[in-house]
Specification:
The protein is of the alpha/beta class and 355 residues long. The chain is 50% helix and 18% strand. Helix 2 (61-76) runs antiparallel to helix 11, helix 3 crosses helix 4 (113-120) and helix 5 packs antiparallel against helix 14. 44% of the residues are buried. Residues 1-38 have low confidence and may be disordered.
Length: 355
């Protein structure tokens, strides 16, 4: 009788273990939410940390949005998902941070398509930052939600990074120490600081400028010492670097709309449980919508700061903008003919408001 009871107990233990194993497998293989995959671990009480590095100052609109995201995510996950933010190039330059995300030495960063293109050695990604592609911030948001996120993922995920959300870097203008830019001719020969990114260099070369690549942190000194005549960026970023102190003119060239694609290392993403991924994406989308709206306000405030500092705001006539668009057409031809991206460009222009 004792032997029979022992056998029954042993069988019961085996069935229990099998049932537990089956339950665990089902949880791991459950359909994932948008942006997740089946490899993500199941929910647990373990704490996860995302290290987010970027190159912008702590007073910048995008950094403040990241602080909102950090607070929201940590509250909604009860501290199970922590976001550590490293601003102002503490961990490296914009280009270096993008490369570090691909390598996994930094978990997240944000850069535009051309920067990711150089960092990942994927030329097609630069298409999301072509000159004169987005009409305004609203166009950037529509383009990201309807085209950029999914199209970028097709190139980036196989390279080990995953786009999750975006911030608007607004539409770029040109700030100069002594020379106003109100025409295509005025650009000829001017020394303009640009990021060390192929598309930026090519854009300004096609416009007739002498494109000079230096780190963003060196802009103020380079302009004040006459190394360059000026630089190009959006109003909020220019003012966050106090360039209104060393420049007399801000020209509304509106030559490039800039979407900062916020991207995570793919292997890191797959270590985060599905429930935390879902919370992160929910929070990120809320903060993204708010940041795009806020960016319009911060640009208006930045323009006023420039005016208060004595900077003259220069409008570019529509006929001169048309000449600039024509001057950069060879760049479009390359992406259409070499990379076969004509249909994608047309979609971006449609949502970006420039079709």
């Amino acid at each position: 009788m004792r032997k029979i009871i022992a056998i029954i107990l042993a069988l019961a233990m085996v069935f229990t273990l099998c049932a537990c194993g089956a339950k665990t497998e089902t949880a791991a293989e459950a359909p994932a939410a948008d942006g997740t995959t089946a490899e993500a671990p199941v929910a647990s009480d373990e704490q996860y940390v995302i290290k987010f590095g970027h190159f912008l100052a702590t007073n910048h609109n995008e950094h403040l949005a990241l602080e909102e995201l950090k607070a929201m995510v940590e509250e909604k996950t009860d501290g199970r998902l922590i976001i550590e933010i490293y601003p102002a190039s503490q961990l490296g330059s914009e280009r270096e941070l993008a490369e570090m995300v691909a390598m996994g030495t930094v978990d997240m960063s944000m850069s535009d398509g051309p920067t990711w293109s150089n960092a990942l050695n994927i030329p097609e990604l630069a298409v999301f930052g072509l000159p004169f592609l987005y009409n305004n911030i609203d166009g950037e948001l529509e383009a990201f939600k309807n085209v950029v996120k999914d199209s970028a993922a097709e190139y980036m995920v196989p390279a080990g990074v995953r786009p999750l959300f975006a911030f608007s870097m607004s539409v770029r203008g040109t700030m100069t120490a002594d020379t106003p830019i109100d025409s295509l001719k005025a650009i000829s020969g001017i020394k303009i600081r640009v990021p060390e990114i192929t598309l930026y260099v090519d854009t300004w070369k096609n416009l007739g400028a002498n494109a000079t690549t230096t780190a963003w942190s060196e802009c103020y000194t380079s302009i004040s010492q006459g190394v360059v005549d000026g630089c190009e960026a959006d109003p909020t970023t220019l003012v966050s670097a106090n360039l209104q102190e060393v420049c007399k003119y801000y020209s509304e060239t509106n030559h490039m709309g800039c979407i900062h694609i916020c991207t995570i290392n793919e292997n890191k993403w797959q270590t985060i449980p599905t429930d935390l991924q879902e919370i992160f994406l929910e929070c990120a989308n809320q903060v993204m919508e708010k940041q795009f709206a806020d960016r319009k306000v911060t640009d208006e405030e930045a323009i006023q700061i420039m005016k208060d500092a004595g900077v003259e705001i220069i409008s570019v006539p529509a006929e001169e903008t048309a000449k600039m668009v024509e001057a950069v057409q060879p760049i479009y031809d390359e992406y259409i003919n070499t990379y076969g991206l004509g249909d994608l460009i047309a979609e971006l222009q449609e949502y970006g408001g420039t079709a």
